[in-house]
Design goal:
7 helices, 8-stranded mixed beta sheet, 36% helix, 8 strands, alpha/beta
């Protein structure tokens, strides 16, 4: 895609990379926060190709919106490090694009009411501390990326690159627990639409979860049902009438498979 300052701003909605717990099925049994799997090593490698694909979109004056889950913050780091040299960017952690807040999210054995209660309490305590941790990680990402958008070797510096600034979003709350997938889909549509209006005129990269990409694909493609969203899968939106968003007319979805398709879009 050619770098064109006259084009409308783009909104890229992306799923995080491959989770560790999809490769190690017993990881959650000993994890203190079984809902917050990091990326697997292979997932981090696979994201290089995805980040290169996103870089080809030639985003400029970028605002990154990341879910506070570890896998989304790690994905954000990979994508940021591959943006074209000198790309201006700010980053925000947004609670309202978090994973679906269902009992299954918290623990795969959360079937009984007492287990669900304990899982809910554990999630609440994680939420209390998570935003501070997530913002600190984003600041470390900013400090570790050089002006040419290449991660510096060694420990992160205390100074931040000139092209990158870390901000904070406070108006977007955590999802209610528990919620259904339908409720989560409505939340994703509502939140991304509001964020696009808030940062109107800027390219936006939203690093969230598979259900967020699924919700937007099914909203933008009439009658479509998404069969799967691959790790790192994304779609590109552009402004529609009013403050609405619509699927970009010439940029195809990547890693998003619609039921009935024999290949990913």
């Amino acid at each position: 895609m050619l770098h064109d300052l006259q084009r409308p701003p783009l909104v890229v909605v992306m799923r995080h990379g491959k989770r560790l717990d999809t490769e190690n099925s017993r990881w959650h049994l000993t994890a203190s926060h079984p809902w917050d799997s990091p990326l697997s090593e292979q997932g981090q490698v696979d994201l290089i190709a995805v980040a290169t694909h996103v870089s080809a979109l030639q985003l400029h004056n970028v605002v990154l919106i990341a879910s506070p889950f570890t896998r989304c913050l790690q994905t954000s780091a990979q994508v940021l490090s591959h943006l074209p040299a000198g790309t201006a960017a700010t980053a925000h952690v947004c609670r309202s694009i978090s994973e679906v807040f269902s009992a299954h999210l918290l623990h795969r054995t959360a079937h009984h009411s007492d287990v669900k209660l304990m899982a809910g309490l554990r999630l609440w305590w994680w939420q209390v501390r998570r935003m501070r941790q997530a913002k600190a990680l984003l600041k470390a990402i900013a400090a570790s990326i050089a002006p040419g958008n290449t991660p510096r070797p060694g420990p992160a510096s205390s100074s931040r690159s000139e092209f990158f600034r870390v901000g904070e979003l406070t108006a977007y709350p955590w999802p209610q627990f528990p919620e259904s997938e339908e409720e989560a889909s409505a939340r994703y549509i509502r939140t991304v639409t509001a964020l696009a209006a808030q940062f109107k005129g800027r390219d936006m990269l939203v690093v969230s979860h598979g259900n967020c990409v699924k919700a937007w694909a099914e909203r933008c493609v009439p009658g479509a049902h998404v069969g799967s969203v691959k790790p790192g899968g994304f779609l590109v939106l552009q402004p529609g009438p009013g403050d609405t968003l619509q699927l970009h007319e010439s940029l195809p979805m990547s890693g998003v498979e619609l039921d009935g398709d024999k290949h990913a879009c």
